[in-house]
Write a structure and sequence with these properties.
CATH topology of the largest domain: Alpha-Beta Plaits
Structural class: alpha+beta
Largest sheet: 5 strands, mixed
CATH architecture of the largest domain: 2-Layer Sandwich
CATH class of the largest domain: Alpha Beta
Number of domains: 2
Mean pLDDT: 93
Amino acid sequence: MKKWNLVIDVAKCFNCHCCTLACHDEYHGNDFPGYAASMPRHGPNWIRIVQRETGAVPMVEVSYLPTMCNHCDDPPCAKVARDGAVVKRPDGIVVIVPEKARGQRQIVDACPYGAVTWNEERQLPQAWPFDAHLLDAGWQRTRGAQSCPTQAMRSVCVEDEEMRRLAADQGLEVLHPEHGTRPRVWYRNLDRYRTLFVGGSVAGEVAGRIECVEGARVTLEHAGRALATARTDPYGDFKFGSLAPSSGAHRVVIESDRYAPLAIDVSLAGASVYLGVVRLPARAAAGPARGTAAAQGAVPNH
């Protein structure tokens, strides 16, 4: 049987909030019996855009992560609901039935993703119902997918085997697989939101002036082995991305034909590191200079 899934490309989301506004437009002031009661005019959005900023000026990465009910195949909310207040439909959609869920705040507490909100006025747990009333009426896309200007959000209705193939082919992931809830909201380019980078700008003295060093070879090392290499651009900039958070000690080795090599020790502990402007020393007969970001006058981001 075909089931509904939502695929979100994190690299295409630029925080326009069209999906959030479309959801509010659909549900505020409207009751859909059996699907959803009206959402509050002010209060938690059922589709939220979580923003992450990492790095330091002028090398900063900002990414956006749309979040909502994951429509889990093993929904914790259904396990604590009474009187059939939470329904897992055959097409994969999870619905909190408003006529049955009144007063059941435990449904909110059961969601490990924080996707179920509490409507104080109506004393109801609420979550985005995958626009099930529209899909049942023949729609092929949710309001959010329809309104997304970059097509960062796509509604996909396929059999589970086909969805697993799509996930493998496109590198799709779910949030917090360790929860074991088997979500139906999938993310592409999720590394853009959760990984870190190490970067900097390389400069050196030329005829008494400090100039950008283009074409310097930069190597990122970890645990005694090279992870990646890069060449500085015309502005002397380099950046290594897709690094695991809290991956610890790394070494950046910078080499140029015109200057002495330099090694800088950095540590990734939950935040990206921008080394600032790194000045290469004059060429000497000895081996590579060594130091830390602070010792070399760089400015790491903590």
